[in-house]
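Quick note —
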Amino acid sequence: MILKSGSFFKVLLAVCCLLAISGLGLCDVVINEVELSPPDSGTVWVELYNTGESAVDLTGWTVKIVDVAWTGPIALKGSIDAKGFIVADGQPAWVTTGNGTVYLYDSSGSMVDKTSPQSDDSHTDFTYGRIPDGKKTDTRADFAFMMESRGRSNGRGVRV
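Predicted structure written out below.
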């Protein structure tokens, strides 16, 4: 098949646009662990993990913890290294029920990741985390109730 030069460029442009649009939905940063019921009147927190091979700029990104009674937005800044972890702390004044769904939004406001609804009223060092790190099947099975590992691997191997 022979394409005229104008047709070739149209096909090339269409392929590039398709790749760009497809790439927007792919993100290497996931919610990796959440503490919704901290011990000793502690602060709720969310750990993010970058499954990718490059650092990601988190400027303008937001984590939102949503419960029936309240919503807790956490503005992000800085960057997360490849295969790295970063923790976003909630406000000390937030009184939680230990329940919630956590959402991650990129700088354009698009949802990148979310947890299934979680419930924890134990007020202990147990959290909900992905095992292995970065496991993302978009099912409730992605998260397990586990001993907290804030800012580090949840163990049992790291998903690559």
